[in-house]
Design brief:
The complex is a heterodimer of chains A (420) and B (428). Chain A has 420 residues and is of the alpha+beta class. Chain A folds into two domains: 6-208, Metalloenzyme, LuxS/M16 peptidase-like (Cytochrome Bc1 Complex, Chain A, domain 1), CATH 3.30.830.10; 231-415, Cytochrome Bc1 Complex, Chain A, domain 1. In chain A, 43% of the residues lie in helices and 19% in strands. Chain A has 16 helices and eleven strands. Chain A has helices at 47-54, 64-73, 98-108, 116-134, 137-149, 163-168, 171-181, 197-208, 258-269, 280-287, 319-335, 340-357, 361-374, 377-381, 383-388, 392-402; strands at residues 6-9, 15-20, 26-33, 77-82, 87-94, 187-193, 231-237, 243-250, 291-298, 305-313, 409-415. In chain A, the strands form two sheets. Chain A has a six-stranded mixed beta sheet with strand order 1-2-6-3-5-4, sandwiched between helices. Chain A has a five-stranded mixed beta sheet with strand order 7-11-8-10-9, with helices on both faces. In chain A, a hairpin with a 5-residue loop joins β1 (6-9) and β2. The longest helix of chain A has 19 residues, at 116-134. Chain A is globular. Helix content of chain B is 44%, strand content 18%. Chain B is an alpha+beta fold. The chains are: A alpha+beta (420), B alpha+beta (428). Chains A and B meet through α2, β5, α3, α4 and α8 of A and α2, β5, α4, α10 and β9 of B.
Chain lengths: 420, 428
């Protein structure tokens, strides 16, 4: 994949990243704000996600009723999402219609209205969204593990927020959050697709440069103290299936250990985006019928976060047995050097996943802004090289350092039978 | 405005000039289209060996068979099959529906021969190893236990059961606990022997390869497959129309949200009204933020995070359904709002502006849906499955524009009768 991009910062501090791709008559435009659930204090949890919803309620120029339709009418696809570290909005449009997306994003960076009645109806929508999540045993378990793994750091709450706060956050809270964080000097505009850079840049400057720079947004800095011993918890709920989640602590995405840990992840639970039936944990747990499924999940985050292994217990299995098997596999990684071939395999898998991603322009635009949130575009372009440089000794060292029982949280979802 | 400074020539929609189609001597239809922008390949296809062949007592058999195909073949065991695939970052899987078993995969172009070899072995020489079948059965039963706790799945199942009573479409293709427990290895081998074969099989290859080379690659591994006695499915029985509105609630304790599905039979994919139904449905529950349904249930009333309508159009009678997830205490209110929208929809149809908006959306989004290799593979498989013609996407813009408000209204009135609805709900 060609990775040549243009990067610059406008006078008001907004960063712009442009990548020309002339494979299809499509352009994908993303605006990223450096604000997410990690910026939320107790009492205001979920405010970043709710603000994201409110950004679809319109401005004077683009009222909600029109906003909804304007993009769809042109055949565009648009949406937004909120993560721990960022809030992002995207439009993928036929190339000759992208101007609409640029005008809309420039306008709602500053001019969203936040009407009281819109806040009221969105409150119940978001409560309904949370109730939908709560229907899922895995959501309940994941939330409990996260709450337990972080006592101090705001990564402790779910992005959607606690129900208590969803009932009490006000219109002014939301509007204040918007005005504080939605300033150009806290934003990145990343565009990929079928355009000519000079022309695009001219238009971006016309639309975004008049937006005045804002005060540097405040940051909530509450580092998580070291965990001093394994923590266990259980969640009870309806169903017949037992789930186990084991969370280890992983460093932030720019830490040098991040890459050897990616190899560990791929050895334990498979490469992201591919099947994982030859991964070590699948073989040990599923092939040997302690579990019916196992998966791993790590995130690239600004602050140290978690690596979660989730096990769907075998109906006849005992969760303690499954945890013992998991421990055995971790011990193997700590005691025995892996082969060079296993690293080569992880690199080949990752390069295939990169090739699949390059078929899709939205995906390529996403990555530009995504990596900028915690690092820089180099992180993305050098990913495969960094993975290839990992040695068997690195893998052993990080397995020893990060996979210790004393710094993990184990959560078990205990079903209380099939009630009907 | 950003000027149009594209370096592309005409946006190329798949058509007779660049979709290569060849029928092998054993009946397999191969479709291929090149895209050299990325070194990857998307492969997909189907063969007519779906759940329509299974009895009520063995419900889930076709699905169980399709999931077992990669659990072991005459040449390779489960671990060897997946080791070959995963080592090169390729993937492949099988799924099953009422009519067909479908398959799909992706790979770097250099590993296409490997992917096709594994596809061919899985289709022709699966061995259904006893221990693997039992492992899969345990996984399957856990999946059914999880399904039994899912309000959305349970509402959908109740919907299909009521709408298609007595018809094969009423049955869940993943079966029930007792039917999955009753399926034996012999059942699986027999199902494979009787219904799997090259006749009616279709495969599409899209990506960084010349079409003729793609056909050769398929022919090399599947061209020699012969199954002289391959059985054909019987004709679908007619569907019984409803005489009045029917309702069913599936009780699930301990849930914070209820799911609802309200709907009726919709047109088949091949039917002449498909496009007018689809555009009408876009206005009803898709366009913008989930159309009129989204506007009323989510935006105005704040009752649901999701509330939309959809068409499920396939070979036989389709479905036209509205679904939403709401707080249990708002269930009645949401159903009332949806019924009211359906009545309004068949009374006055869609406005000129609404239709124009959805038409513009359908036309504008075409390049987006055809951007990735898998998007193109799905598109050309649909052309083949429903006999739409290789020039379908080139005629598409004209066909969309031709649909009138009167067409939409006539189609809506043909299918939607607010006094004969199926209303399925699941929750506390």
């Amino acid at each position: 994949m060609a990775n040549k991009i243009t990067q610059l910062t406008l006078k008001n501090g907004m960063k712009v990243m442009l990548k020309e791709i002339h494979t299809a008559p499509i352009i994908s435009s993303w605006v990223w704000y450096r604000v997410g659930s990690k910026d939320e204090s107790t009492g205001k949890t979920g405010i970043s996600h709710w603000t994201e919803h409110m950004q679809f309620k319109g401005t004077k120029k683009f009222p909600a009723s029109m906003l909804d339709k304007a993009i769809s009418r042109e055949g565009g696809r648009w949406n937004a999402s909120t993560s721990h570290d960022s809030t992002r909005y995207y439009e993928t449009m036929p190339a000759d219609k992208i101007d609409l997306a640029l005008r809309l994003e420039a306008d709602r960076m500053r001019n969203s209205i936040y009407k009281e009645n819109e806040v009221a109806s969105e409150r119940t929508v978001i409560i309904s969204e949370r109730e939908g999540h709560e229907n899922e045993p895995m959501f309940r378990l994941t939330e409990a593990v996260q709450n337990t793994a972080f006592r101090v750091h705001p990564y402790r709450h779910e992005i959607i927020g606690d129900m208590a706060d969803l009932h009490t956050i006000t219109r002014d809270d939301l509007y204040g959050h918007y005005r504080t964080y939605y300033v150009p000097n806290n934003a990145i505009l990343a565009i990929a697709g079928d355009f000519e850079t000079k022309e695009m840049l001219k238009r971006i400057k016309e639309l975004f440069e008049p937006i005045p720079k804002g005060a540097t947004p405040p940051r909530l800095t509450r580092p998580e103290p070291e965990q001093k011993g394994e923590i266990r918890l259980s969640v009870e709920g309806p169903g017949e299936t037992t789930f186990i989640q084991v969370a280890y602590r992983f460093p932030d995405a720019t830490h040098p250990d991040f890459f050897p840990l990616q190899v560990v992840d791929s050895l334990l639970t498979g490469a992201s985006g591919l099947s994982y039936k030859t991964s070590r944990l699948y073989r040990a747990l599923v092939d040997h019928e302690y579990a019916v499924n196992v998966s791993g999940w790590s995130e690239s985050t600004i602050d140290p976060y978690l690596y979660r292994i989730t096990i769907t217990n075998h109906p006849k299995g005992n969760p303690e047995e499954a945890i013992k098997v998991l421990d055995g596999e971790i011990r193997k990684l700590q005691d025995e050097l892996i082969s060079r071939a296993e690293i080569t395999r992880a690199v080949k898998q990752a390069s295939a996943v990169f090739a699949y991603g390059s078929e899709n322009i939205t995906h390529q635009a996403f990555w530009m802004g995504y990596v900028e949130m915690f690092s820089s575009y180099d992180w993305f372009t050098t990913y495969l090289d960094k993975l290839a440089k990992v040695t068997p000794k690195d893998v052993q060292r990080v397995a020893q350092k990060y996979f210790q029982s004393k710094s993990r949280v184990i959560g078990i979802y205990i079903p209380n039978g099939a009630e009907a | 405005m950003v000027k149009r400074t594209s370096k592309l020539t005409q946006p190329s929609l798949p058509g007779p000039d660049d979709i290569y189609r060849e029928v092998l001597s054993n009946g397999i239809t191969v479709l291929a289209r090149s895209n050299f922008n990325s070194p990857s390949i998307s492969m997909g296809g189907y063969l007519p060996a779906g759940a329509i062949f299974e009895s009520d007592a063995k419900l889930g058999l076709a699905d169980f068979v399709s999931s077992s195909l990669m659990r072991g073949t005459q040449r390779r065991n489960f671990d060897e099959i997946y080791n070959e695939l995963e080592s090169v970052g390729a993937s492949m899987g099988f799924d099953s529906g009422v009519h067909n078993i479908s398959f799909g995969g992706r790979t770097l172009v250099e590993d296409l021969p490997l992917l096709l070899k594994l596809l061919s072995e899985s289709l022709q020489t699966p061995t259904f190893p006893k221990d693997e079948v039992e492992k899969l059965r345990a996984q399957w039963l856990t999946g059914l236990a999880i399904r039994a706790q899912d309000t959305s799945d349970m509402a959908s199942m109740a919907f299909d059961a009521m709408l298609f009573e007595g018809h094969p479409y009423s049955r869940p293709s993943d079966g029930y606990v007792e039917t999955i427990q009753s399926i034996t290895r012999d059942d699986m081998e027999k199902f494979h022997r009787l219904y799997f074969g090259p006749r009616g099989m279709v495969i599409a290859i899209v990506g960084a390869i010349e079409p003729k080379k793609a056909v050769e690659a398929v022919s090399r591994v599947l061209g020699g497959w012969q199954v002289p006695g391959q059985l054909k499915a019987s004709v679908l029985p007619p569907h019984k129309p409803l005489k009045k509105t029917v309702k069913r609630h599936h009780a699930l304790a301990g849930k914070s949200q209820s799911d609802l599905v309200i709907g009726m039979v919709g047109p088949s994919r091949k039917g002449p009204e498909y496009l007018s139904a689809s555009l009408g449905n876009s206005v009803l529950g898709q366009f913008g933020m989930m159309g009129r349904i989204g506007e009323v249930v989510r935006e105005k009333s704040g009752l649901a995070y999701y509330a939309s309508s959809s068409l499920g159009a396939g070979i036989g009678p389709g479905t036209w359904e509205v679904s939403a997830g709401v707080n249990p205490k708002n269930l009645k209110k949401a159903i009332g709002l949806i019924e009211k929208e359906l009545r309004r929809f068949i009374k006055s149809g869609v406005t000129k502006q609404e239709l124009a908006d959805s038409q513009a959306n359908y036309i504008g989004r075409l390049p987006l849906s055809l951007e990735s290799n898998s998007g193109v593979a799905n598109a050309i498989l649909n052309i083949e499955r429903y006999g739409l013609g290789l020039d379908y996407y080139q005629r598409y813009v004209g066909m969309v524009r031709e649909v009138t408000r009167a067409d939409v209204l006539e189609t809506a009135r043909k299918y939607i009768d607010p006094d004969r609805l199926v209303i399925a709900t699941a929750g506390p």
